[in-house]
């Protein structure tokens, strides 16, 4: 049944480690259940055994990468195992399957099978409803489905397999019960076999009907959308897992990519860039989209509801029709703040399901990315363009902090935009300076050399060189940093800007002549980076710091720089001779007498330490036995101090029966006379009669009667111990046999 | 008033004498003889399901002799009339009055042999006398006297030409059991004494009918702890909820079990009932009152086995209840 229950788990793992883990879990659980039933372990002992098995077997089975020599657990493995008990369930539905033996993701299946098998065996062997043993495997089966994959290829087969296993178990239980009733009867073997065969035939008919029904349903009805936890709980979109769009900026200008049509867009307003990604996090090396940890607003992507209300946003309502040609990335092109989006084409449902939106930046992304042939229509609100940068006042949005401006860039800013001016004027001056002094080169073959990258060091070099040569990657980042230095919240935008007719291929940046409409086809080298700054009104204003493409003059020679080195004042180290080593401080040399005392103390401490360790080890080893003795003493005390004489007398008999059990005698559940007969001896029979008389005779038992019965029981226990010898008496004292109490098991009841 | 330990000891001694006396006739059948006397002293009736030739008539006659009572044997046949059992009123020309002529039911021990061969009408003629110990003929009631016990037999093998006993009548039998064939040693002893026919073996009276009535009255006073009542109630309830049972044990069955357990306990020299008494009598007292469902019967499940299973699955009174 467990084998069938584990079928839905297979697509999650699809590895041999899963088979080993599940097999170990099931076998360990069944062993614990069977041992608990045969030795009548109490519930707490069964639970302890399960926990122990989990800790001992868990690392090699469920976290094999943390095991030494395959089977030995390590401390780190135990930590992973325990943490995985709680955390791996979530990871199981957020990591794309198959997960194999990745980290501690096998813990759920190991835990499920171990506990499920132990509970199932216990239910089957120790309760009056063994049919309930089907429940734990059913729970494992359902859990496997819930945590399984979205597209299950053999769901019907798994269901039928589990149904067959369950029906087989039910038949097994029914046959066992019926045989228990007719074994002693007059029914012959033929009748028994016929009855068994009738049940098997009935079960076969049920399975046949289920098989036919499932086949008909599978053929006649379309496969419905499968809903599991994984489908409802999509893993969060984490932009930091992606490469920054700015990091690969130069690759768009290679000879193989620059003329490739990327996107066809209709409805893009004039002088508006087609935004791909908005970047607001800079660590001095890479400008990127923020993470999902909430520290950067650009990183908070959520699934888009039907639409977002943008009625409060000032701007031009825009409809964009985008057809993907050669573009393949997760970022969804758009303009302004997205209000609603509708995907079309063959992958429309998948794209809609995977679409996420950053409400703050208005940019979108889709899990798995866009590919050629995808298309969508986006309704957005595009802010009005602002031409008068000098009039802008900084907004108040708090962005993630950026590193200090490098010296050269700071000096360049101070020279072009004095701090005495208004912020808007400084920003305009910076942009104008970049436009005037900057030249564009992507560093490709045939162009003027220009290093890629936008680390602080590169930006420092950018403004130090004459002439200033770079491209959107450097200009946008430099402008964003300087805008933020001025006081404006600023962010870098990567996208496509409409280009000039003479700078690109046909129809780029203008209406598609062939269509006669307003279609714009962007090619690879239309990729651009610019910045957005926030004004005091909260609106983000598009600012393009990139200079026009024009001829680059010859490079000016570098200014000679005098490097001054400070004089060293550190004297050379003195040379030490062997003679120096001999002249140690005499105060530090111990004398012989103290040395002898210390040796004795060290020996004593060593002996004490070893003795302590031995005592500690002995205590650890003896602790289970001491615990058993304490539990029995407590049980005896409770029985001896019961609130009535009758209960104390009954407790005395139970104490005697438990002692007999601990001495290896089989004491069946039943009446005292039956138990006494099983224990044997006239004394036991007499004692049973005395207890019965006290409990069932007319009148309540007197207070003195219980003392006499307890005295008799104490004497009988002593004689039991004397009969078996000292060694077996010691074993009986620490035996777990009687700690299961009088829980009547099916197994025990029949014996 | 409860039975005293001394009364119980005396009761057990008297019962042992009766059992020993009858066992001289029915060799090796101590258990069934004790059960039969338990039924007699519990004022109940016994149904024996046995094949012919196992000593049913001998049992009835020996029991009657042991208690100085009379015994009658009625062979039930399809043409047997109710009046053939209960008696008939006959007009006496000499006196000009109707005289009642008692039927064979007027005896201390009545052996109704092969009771299932008579028609249901004749079978039901036994109902009143079994329940109330009296016969009503032509509006006149005639007590059958004390002690009174019906030992009915039916052949479990031969079913042709028989009428199955209705449940109401089955419920009126306190116990159902069987004598069965004797064991090997007893068979040898029977063969060794074959010269003397069984019915010629005279059992000397051990007690008088009045003493039997007194013992029956004494058995009623045996103490029954509430936990025993609870135990019997749980047993009966378990027979009603078992999957294999269509009709469980009635309240009359539970009352009969308690009554028989009292007598059984006294017969063991105890003035109180213990769970072992209940377990010992559960099968003979309860099994014939069960009606199994058809599927269970088809599978070979018997009422006796089901009672045995119920006894296993129903734990005896525990310390909690006994406190």
Automatic annotation (TrEMBL), chain B:
InterPro entries referenced in this protein's UniProt entry, alphabetically: ATPase_AAA-3, CbbQ/NirQ/NorQ/GpvN, ChlI/MoxR_AAA_lid, P-loop_NTPase
Top-level division of the source organism's lineage: Bacteria
Domain ATPase AAA-3, first and last residues per copy: 45-175
Pfam family, one: AAA_lid_2
ChlI/MoxR AAA lid domain boundaries: 238-308
GO MF: ATP binding; ATP hydrolysis activity
Assigned keywords, A-Z: ATP-binding, Nucleotide-binding
Family, similarity comment: Belongs to the MoxR family.
Protein name from the UniProt record: AAA domain-containing protein
């Amino acid at each position: 049944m467990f084998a069938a229950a584990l079928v839905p788990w297979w697509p999650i793992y699809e590895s041999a480690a899963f088979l080993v883990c599940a097999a170990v879990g099931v076998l360990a659980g069944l062993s614990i259940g069977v041992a608990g039933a045969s030795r009548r372990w109490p519930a707490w002992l069964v639970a302890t055994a399960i926990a122990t098995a989990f800790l001992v077997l868990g690392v090699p089975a469920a976290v094999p990468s943390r095991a030494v020599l395959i089977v030995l657990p390590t401390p780190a493995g135990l930590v992973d195992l325990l943490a995985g008990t709680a955390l791996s369930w979530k990871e199981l539905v957020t990591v794309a399957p198959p997960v194999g033996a990745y980290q501690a993701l096998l813990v759920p299946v190991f835990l499920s099978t171990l506990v499920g098998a132990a509970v199932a065996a216990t239910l089957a062997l120790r309760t009056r409803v063994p049919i309930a043993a089907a429940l734990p495997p059913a729970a494992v089966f359902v859990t496997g489905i819930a945590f399984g994959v979205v597209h299950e290829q053999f769901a019907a087969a798994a269901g039928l397999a589990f149904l067959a296993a369950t029906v087989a178990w039910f038949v097994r239980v029914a046959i066992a019960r019926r045989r228990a009733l007719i074994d002693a009867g007059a029914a012959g073997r033929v009748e028994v076999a016929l009855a068994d065969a009738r049940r098997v035939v009935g079960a076969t008919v049920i399975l046949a009907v289920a098989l036919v029904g499932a086949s008909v349903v599978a053929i006649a009805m379309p496969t419905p959308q499968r809903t599991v936890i994984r489908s409802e709980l999509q893993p969060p979109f984490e932009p930091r897992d992606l490469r920054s769009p700015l990091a690969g900026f130069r690759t768009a200008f290679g000879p193989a990519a620059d003329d490739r049509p990327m996107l066809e867009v209709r409805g893009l307003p004039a002088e508006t860039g087609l935004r791909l990604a908005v970047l607001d996090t800079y660590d001095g090396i890479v400008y990127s989209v923020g993470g999902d940890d909430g520290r950067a607003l650009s990183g908070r992507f959520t699934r888009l509801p039907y639409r977002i209300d943008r009625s409060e946003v000032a701007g031009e309502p825009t409809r964009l029709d985008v057809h993907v040609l050669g573009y393949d990335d997760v970022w969804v092109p758009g303009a302004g703040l997205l209000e609603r989006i509708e995907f079309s084409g063959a992958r429309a449902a998948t794209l809609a399901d995977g679409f996420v939106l950053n409400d703050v930046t208005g940019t979108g992304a889709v899990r798995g990315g866009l590919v050629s042939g995808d298309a969508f229509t986006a309704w957005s609100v595009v802010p009005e363009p602002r031409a008068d940068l000098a009039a802008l006042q900084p907004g108040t949005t708090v962005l993630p902090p950026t590193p200090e401006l490098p010296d050269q860039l700071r000096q360049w800013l101070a020279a072009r935009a004095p701090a005495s001016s208004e912020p808007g004027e400084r920003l305009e001056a910076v942009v104008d300076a970049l436009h005037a002094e900057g030249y564009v080169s992507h560093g490709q073959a045939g162009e003027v050399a220009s290093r890629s990258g936008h680390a602080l060091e590169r930006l420092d070099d950018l403004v130090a060189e004459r002439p200033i040569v770079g491209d959107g990657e450097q200009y946008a980042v430099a402008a964003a940093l300087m805008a933020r230095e001025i006081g404006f919240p600023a962010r870098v935008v990567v996208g496509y800007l409409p280009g000039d007719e003479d700078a690109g291929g046909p129809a780029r940046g203008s209406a598609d002549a062939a269509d006669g409409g307003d279609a714009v086809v962007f090619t690879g080298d239309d990729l651009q980076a610019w910045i957005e700054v926030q004004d005091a009104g909260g609106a983000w204003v598009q600012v393009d710091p990139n200079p026009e493409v024009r001829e680059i003059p010859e490079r000016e020679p570098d200014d000679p720089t005098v490097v001054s080195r400070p004089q060293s004042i550190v004297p050379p180290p003195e040379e030490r001779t062997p003679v120096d080593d001999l002249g140690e401080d005499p105060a530090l040399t111990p004398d012989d007498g103290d040395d002898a005392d210390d040796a004795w103390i060290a020996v004593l401490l060593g002996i004490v330490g070893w003795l302590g360790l031995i005592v500690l080890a002995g205590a650890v080893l003896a602790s289970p036995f001491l615990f058993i003795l304490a539990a029995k003493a407590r049980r005896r005390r409770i029985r001896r101090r019961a609130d009535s004489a009758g209960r104390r007398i009954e407790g005395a008999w139970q104490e005697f029966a438990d002692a007999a059990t601990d001495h290896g005698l089989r004491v069946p559940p039943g009446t005292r006379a039956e138990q006494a007969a099983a224990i044997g001896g006239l004394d036991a029979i007499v004692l049973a009669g005395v207890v019965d008389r006290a409990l069932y005779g007319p009148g309540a038992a007197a207070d003195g009667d219980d003392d006499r019965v307890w005295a008799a029981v104490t004497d009988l226990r002593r004689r039991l111990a004397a009969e078996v010898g000292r060694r077996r008496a010691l074993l009986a004292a620490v035996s777990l046999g009687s700690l299961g109490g009088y829980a009547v098991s099916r197994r025990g009841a029949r014996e | 008033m409860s039975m005293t330990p001394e009364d119980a000891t005396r009761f057990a001694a008297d019962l042992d004498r009766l059992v020993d006396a009858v066992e001289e006739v029915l060799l090796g059948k101590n258990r069934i003889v004790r059960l039969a006397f338990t039924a007699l002293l519990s004022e109940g009736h016994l149904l024996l399901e046995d094949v012919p030739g196992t000593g049913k008539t001998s049992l009835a006659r020996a029991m009657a002799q042991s208690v100085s009572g009379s015994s009658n044997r009625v062979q039930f046949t399809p043409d047997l009339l109710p009046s053939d059992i209960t008696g008939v009123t006959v007009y006496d020309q000499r006196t000009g009055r109707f005289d009642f002529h008692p039927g064979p039911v007027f005896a201390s021990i009545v052996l109704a042999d092969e009771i299932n061969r008579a028609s249901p009408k004749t079978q039901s003629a036994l109902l009143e006398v079994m329940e109330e110990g009296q016969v009503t003929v032509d509006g006149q009631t005639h007590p059958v006297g004390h002690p009174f016990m019906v030992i009915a037999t039916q052949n479990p093998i031969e079913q042709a030409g028989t009428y199955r006993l209705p449940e109401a009548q089955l419920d009126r039998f306190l116990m159902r059991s069987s004598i069965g064939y004797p064991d090997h040693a007893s068979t040898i002893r029977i063969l060794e004494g074959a010269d003397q026919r069984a019915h010629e073996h005279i059992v000397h009276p051990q007690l008088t009918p009045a003493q039997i009535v007194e013992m029956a009255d004494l058995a009623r006073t045996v103490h029954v702890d509430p936990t025993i009542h609870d135990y019997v109630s749980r047993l009966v309830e378990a027979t009603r909820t078992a999957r294999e049972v269509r009709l469980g044990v009635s309240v009359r069955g539970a009352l009969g079990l308690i009554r028989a357990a009292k007598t059984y306990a006294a017969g063991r020299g105890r003035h109180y009932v213990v769970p072992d008494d209940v377990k010992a009598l559960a099968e003979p007292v309860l099994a014939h009152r069960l009606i199994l469902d058809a599927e269970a019967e088809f599978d070979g499940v018997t009422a006796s086995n089901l009672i045995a299973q119920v006894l296993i699955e129903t734990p005896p009174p525990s310390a909690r209840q006994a406190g």
